[in-house]
Design a protein that fits this description.
alpha+beta; GIY-YIG endonuclease; Nucleotidyltransferase, domain 5; 5 domains; seven-stranded mixed β-sheet; six-stranded mixed β-sheet; 20 helices; 19 strands; globular; disordered C terminus
Length: 621
């Protein structure tokens, strides 16, 4: 797209709130921003006057196209910006690292007999979510404590409906609602105590347990009173570990950001009823040349876009850009007024300073580890260059692997390390289409050939530039001499020469090079070998994950999609209700018919088909 076309788009931008997306020459979204006035905000990037940061200059130089979405208000623009950043993860936006991996505790309060689950997916399904937990160990300790103090069921709905007590019920770990040993009202009372604990309302919980213990003692229910006494002591032990930080009983989040050496760390302390009940931290990428208010704004937006609970007051270490808009958005999310404050004196300022100090300590540890890892990685690459006779330490290293089970759903994968670090955006996966049966050599030839053929097509201008445009400095083939020879033939057929290629045999961890009869044996404590093994293992993981995905899709399709009358919506509803095809096979016809979109006739058809499929599988063994 020409510069003139981009200028025309900028000149036609409306003076309305909305979101703008900047695209590079490949059509990739490299930045997402919000604006009260699209016209004024986007124009500011391209004015010759002013002194934009180095990051903004680099971004603008890559902008080839522009898209925008008008919204009804600045708050709606903020919400849309959060969603688009999470979906596209643009290169020039601030990035909260590894946000997709953090788990939550989920209390299924919408169920008749709720459960406590671990989940990484927050949905609007009526459940209560607590988290995210950046340390899975802390989350599992909390879950273990809750299940010990407040036993609730862990079984699926299908098992619950069978009406048989499980092992947990026999050892006192479950109140057995399946057999009617506890009423729904009593069960709900236990769940209410779990919610009190997770919300930080331990004083209310203590008072509740004390009253129940006294009542049990008066009624001469000494065993029940003893159990409540043990619960009470455990809760009081947790309370003793919590630090009182305010004289009042406020519910607050305290947020501070530390920055240094091109990195930043955002820290959140959770204060409930005047005590610190937990904390989380996130490392932020893409903060170079950004102001403190800009970093704090991006951190607050991205953090609260993913959590379920917003307190009435949030204390901040820095002012926000568009603070009124952010406050209105958070108020909508909470359902009542949220106050954003930057304290300048008193106890609240001291609290913010404490959070900032914690963030700074975490950042210093992170930078120390990063610098140490960087030095180790540089040494590993230098060692590879010396041991393998390379002209220079390899910057881009690619590894290829094949995954299949007896030739079924054969796939290939390519993982990429750049400067010794994984670069997942450059990973590629291949569905092998020309090989029948378990032939790893032929499959490797197809995958490697496709990769380097695409590189030639990019160079010849037959298609837009992509990740295939960058040629590697070193290629690693997961396998021995056979896989290595197949890869070399494929590269030669594509006219690719001069790139060092080695086979890495699993087990002995020997490196094979074409033309050399004996392998290169690196010491087991070699940092260079460890780097290659990490790359090989990452490629294998990527290949196996894709293979399992394809196999799972094929298996599900063969069992459900072939049933007349079961389309995508009914299939989704059935799997959501029963969890798996195996559980669906064991379900009663009436339970299947009760699923949204189903009826008795369809339920009988599903039951008959799955029963027949099970018999066919047993007969084929």
């Amino acid at each position: 797209m020409g510069i003139g076309h981009l200028e025309d788009k900028i000149n036609r931008l409306p003076d309305q709130p909305g979101v703008y997306l900047m695209l590079d020459s490949r059509g990739n979204i490299i930045y997402v921003g919000k604006a009260t006035s699209l016209k004024n905000r986007v124009r500011s990037y391209f004015r010759p006057s002013g002194q934009p940061s180095a990051k903004v200059r680099a971004m603008v130089a890559k902008v080839e196209d522009l898209e925008y979405i008008i919204t009804d208000s600045p708050v709606e623009a903020l919400i849309l910006e959060n969603n688009l950043i999470k979906e596209h993860r643009p290169r020039y936006n601030i990035d909260l690292k590894d946000d997709k991996t953090y788990p939550y505790l989920k209390v299924t309060v919408q169920d008749r007999y709720p459960r406590i689950l671990v989940t990484r997916l927050v949905q609007k399904d009526g459940a209560r979510y607590f988290g995210p937990y950046t340390r899975a160990g802390a989350m599992h300790e909390t879950l273990k404590l809750l299940r010990r103090l407040f036993p609730v069921r862990t079984c699926t709905d299908h098992v619950l409906q069978q009406g048989r007590a499980c092992l947990n019920a026999h050892i006192g770990r479950c109140p057995a609602p399946c057999t009617g040993q506890i009423s729904e009202e009593q069960y709900r009372s236990v769940v209410a105590e779990i919610l009190m604990f997770l919300e930080g309302r331990q004083e209310d919980l203590v008072a509740r347990l004390q009253a129940r213990m006294a009542e049990a003692a008066e009624n001469l229910e000494y065993e029940r009173a003893a159990r409540l006494r043990d619960q009470l002591r455990a809760v009081e032990a947790v309370l003793a570990e919590q630090k009182i930080v305010t004289g009042g009983l406020e519910d607050q989040d305290v947020v501070a950001v530390a920055r240094g050496e091109g990195a930043a760390c955002g820290q959140v302390f959770f204060v409930r009823a005047g005590k610190v009940v937990g904390r989380e931290h996130f490392f932020l990428g893409g903060t170079d040349d950004m102001t403190r208010p800009a970093i704090m704004t991006a951190f607050v937006q991205q953090y609260y876009a993913r959590v379920d609970t917003v307190p009435r007051e949030i204390l901040l270490g820095d002012e926000l850009e568009d603070g009124e808009v952010v406050a209105e958005w958070l108020s909508r999310k909470r359902g009542s007024k949220v106050y954003l404050r930057v304290p300048r004196k008193g106890d609240k300022q001291k609290l913010v300073e404490m959070v900032h100090k914690n963030a700074m300590l975490l950042l210093e540890e992170y930078l120390l580890d990063r610098n140490r890892d960087g030095a180790k990685t540089a040494g590993a690459l230098q060692e590879l260059a010396e041991r393998l006779g390379l002209k220079a330490p390899p910057s881009r290293v690619e590894c290829f692997d094949i995954s299949n089970i007896q030739g079924s759903d054969q796939v290939g994968a390519m993982a990429v390390f750049v400067d010794g670090r994984p670069k997942p955006s450059e990973y590629r996966r291949f569905k092998v289409g020309t090989v029948d049966g378990p032939d790893d050599y032929a499959a490797m030839a197809e995958v490697v050939g496709r990769r380097f053929r695409r590189a030639g097509e990019v160079r010849d201008g037959e298609e837009p530039a992509s990740g295939f445009a960058s040629l590697p400095d070193l290629v690693i083939i997961d396998g021995g001499k056979g896989q290595l020879s197949a890869a070399l033939r494929a590269m030669a057929a594509c006219g690719v020469t001069g790139i060092p290629v080695y086979g890495l045999a699993k087990g002995e961890e020997y490196l094979f090079r074409p033309g050399l009869p004996d392998p290169i044996i690196l010491p087991r404590d070699s940092e260079g070998l460890r780097l290659l093994m990490r790359l090989r293992d990452e490629t294998h993981r990527f290949a196996v994950t894709y293979h399992r995905h394809l196999r799972g899709k094929r298996q599900q399709k063969s069992l459900l999609d072939e049933i007349p009358g079961i389309g995508p919506r009914r299939k989704k509803a059935l799997l959501q209700r029963f969890g798996s095809v195996a559980c669906l096979r064991e379900a009663e016809v009436a339970d299947i018919a009760a699923v949204d979109g189903m009826n008795l006739s369809l339920a009988e058809r599903v039951k008959e088909y799955l029963a027949g499929a099970g018999q066919r599988q047993q007969g084929s063994r």
